[in-house]
Specification:
The complex is a heterodimer of chains A (119) and B (106). Chain A is 0% helix and 48% strand. Chain A contains no helices and eleven strands. Chain B has strands spanning 4-7, 10-12, 19-25, 33-38, 45-49, 53-54, 62-67, 70-75, 85-90, 97-98, 102-105. The chains are: A mainly beta (119), B mainly beta (106).
């Protein structure tokens, strides 16, 4: 079955960087675009970024554009999110997510990894 | 970015009630909208895609409608397991955007 396992979260100071990883299994990774979605504690969902199946195209949410970079390694079935110039409002659970077969929206989610930006 | 405005932000209902949640887009998005249910400490779960298509395994008491800018999620007869937060998500154009959520409480 589809498994998405995020890692790399933790506590970091404002202005610092962090890289999240998502290990994918149970499906043909290089057939799917992949997304990151985040959720600040006690708040709603925010779509962060997407990368095409082959890694050639990326789009970002307005709040992270220019600071975050999504990438993937299709040889290792891993999705990444490089987060630079972190701010306290980037504090959230970060989910790795996959769309359904042949469609849009998201039907598979990881468990999430918590990123806390605090001095 | 397209703004998605959900209403109400919360509602109180009883088991057996019919519940309606609406989502309005700041511009037309065809039928490129999904609805999600999220329970505490869990990832969201896709209920509806393409505005009105029921995701596999989702009970038929959930339905979606709408096109263009105005969309509705209806729960025909609220069950105890339906108390949760519901979100809409537009996938018409990037960046994708979520509504702010509707908390359905007892």
């Amino acid at each position: 079955q589809v498994q998405l396992v995020e890692s790399g979260g933790g506590v970091v100071q404002p202005g610092m960087s962090l890289r999240l990883s998502c290990a994918a299994s149970g499906f043909t990774f290089n057939n799917y675009a992949m997304h990151w979605v985040r959720q600040p504690p006690g708040q709603g969902l925010y779509w962060v970024a997407v990368i095409s199946f082959d890694g050639t195209t990326q789009y970002y949410g307005d709040s992270v554009k220019g600071r975050f970079t999504i990438s993937r390694d299709n040889s290792k079935n891993i999705l990444f999110l490089q987060m630079n110039s972190l701010r306290p409002d980037d504090t959230a659970v970060y989910y790795c997510a996959r769309p359904p077969v042949g469609g849009d929206q998201i039907d598979n989610w990881g468990l999430g990894t918590l990123v806390t930006v605090s001095s | 970015a397209i703004q998605m405005t959900q209403s109400p932000s919360s509602l109180s209902a009883s088991v057996g009630d019919r519940v309606t949640i609406t989502c309005r887009a700041s511009q037309g998005i065809r039928n490129d909208l999904g609805w999600y249910q999220q329970k505490p400490g869990k990832a969201p779960n896709l209920l509806i895609y393409g505005a009105s298509n029921l995701q596999n395994g989702v009970p038929s008491r959930f339905s979606g409608s709408g096109s263009g800018t105005d969309f509705t999620l209806t729960i025909s007869s609220l069950q105890p397991e339906d108390f949760a937060i519901y979100y809409c998500l537009q996938d018409f154009s990037y960046p994708w955007t979520f509504g702010q959520g509707t908390k359905v409480e007892i």
